[in-house]
């Protein structure tokens, strides 16, 4: 009797652990195409072209009508060499702040969003970039099929740029829009998210 009870408990424990492992494996990483181009505002100069990449973690599949979250939204916005030269000429050599490139979805309705952190970074002389990480968004899944995700436009970041000559941080709202190209840029994340 005791042995039978032990075996039943052990079997149940194995099933629970297996189910937990299955859930852990269910997390999926979604990636944007490389080098999506945006036009962004910078202090003291005309809007400049930047390129961006982004990724996040989400479920492997969701039921229709359910609320789900995507987390660990992170990415990098790269300044071109010409932009970095202009910023250097104006005395700017670093950045910090908050914000992210929002993720939009087809066949899903947005519910909430938590912005990402932009860590403090002082740039080397010839290159510059803006990292962000830790963002999250929630959606309600639509009809059976798939949810498609895209990098959003327009968006803005709450930044502070560092001025090297007097070691000060200058507040700046960087506003960005997707660069219009022909053919249009591919901004879709892969893979799609199945809706069951």
Task: Using brief descriptors, characterize the structure shown.
196 residues, alpha+beta, 10-stranded antiparallel sheet, 3-stranded antiparallel sheet, 13 strands, disordered N terminus
Radius of gyration: 22 Å
How many β-strand stretches? 13
Number of helices: 2
Give the CA-CA distance, first to last residue: 43 Å
Biggest sheet details? 10 strands, antiparallel
Derived from helix and strand composition plus strand pairing, the structural class reads: alpha+beta
Could you report the average pLDDT, rounded to the nearest whole number? 89
Order of helices and strands: HEEEEHEEEEEEEEE
Structure description:
The protein is an alpha+beta fold and 196 residues long. It has two helices and 13 strands. The strands form two sheets. Strands 1, 2, 3, 4, 5, 7, 8, 9, 11 and 12 form a ten-stranded antiparallel β-sheet that branches. Strands 6-10-13 form a three-stranded antiparallel β-sheet, with no helix packed on it. A hairpin with a 2-residue loop joins strand 2 (36-42) and strand 3. The longest helix has 25 residues, at 2-26. The radius of gyration is 22 Å and the shape is elongated. It starts with a helix and ends with a strand. The model is unreliable at 1-25 (pLDDT under 50).
């Amino acid at each position: 009797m005791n042995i039978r009870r032990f075996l039943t408990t052990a079997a149940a424990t194995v099933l629970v652990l297996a189910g937990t492992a299955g859930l852990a494996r269910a997390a999926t990483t979604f990636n944007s195409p490389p080098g999506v181009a945006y036009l962004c505002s910078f202090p003291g100069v005309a809007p400049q072209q930047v390129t961006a990449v982004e990724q996040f973690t989400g479920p492997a599949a969701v039921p229709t009508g359910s609320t789900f979250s995507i987390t660990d939204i992170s990415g990098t916005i790269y300044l071109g060499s010409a932009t970095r030269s202009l910023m250097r000429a104006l005395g700017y050599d670093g950045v910090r702040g908050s914000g992210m490139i929002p993720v939009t979805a087809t066949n899903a309705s947005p519910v909430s969003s938590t912005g990402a952190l932009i860590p403090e970074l002082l740039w080397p002389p010839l290159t510059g970039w803006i990292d962000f990480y830790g963002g999250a968004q929630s959606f309600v899944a639509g009809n059976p099929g798939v949810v498609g995700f895209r990098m959003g436009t327009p968006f803005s970041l709450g930044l502070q740029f560092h001025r090297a000559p007097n070691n000060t941080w200058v507040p700046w709202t960087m506003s960005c829009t997707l660069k219009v190209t022909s053919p249009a840029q591919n901004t879709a994340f892969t893979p799609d998210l199945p809706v069951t």
